[in-house]
Amino acid sequence: MKNFPWAYTRDRKPVRAGDLKAQGAMTALEKVALDIPSKPDMRQRLTQAGFEMTAKDGKSHMERVASELPMFRDIIAQAGIKKL
Question: Do the domain assignments include residue 29?
Answer without folding.
Answer: yes
